[in-house]
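At this stage, I wrote out one protein, both as residues and as discrete backbone shape codes, and that material follows here.
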Amino acid sequence: MVEVAPERFEEMVTEALDGLPAELGELMDNVAVTVEHGPGPPGLLGLYRGIPLTSRTTAYAGALPDRITIYRRAICAVCGTENEVVEQVRRTVVHEVGHHFGIGDARLRELGW
């Protein structure tokens, strides 16, 4: 386990989001990415809650933003170095953004995410 300051961890999440291809960033719609510094649900490094883009219909309007939550303590607990945290944050952000685009866990695992 490695300890990463909350501010540094938030920078890592921002860097991971900034590292996404610009085309994906432009397609992301009505989604908020947050960091949870307390303990998250057991076994989860990140969590997507919302209506994936592929499930939205013409009736989709006025909905609260989808939420992607990245769990700092859970990620730090599975990493041994800050560099490992950076990589795990990147992988977790990509995984949860994949859910926003309607990609399920099985397909994300096939793709290596």
Remarks:
- The beta strands are 31-36, 46-49, 66-71.
- Residues 6-50+65-111 form a domain with the Zincin-like fold (CATH 3.30.2010.20).
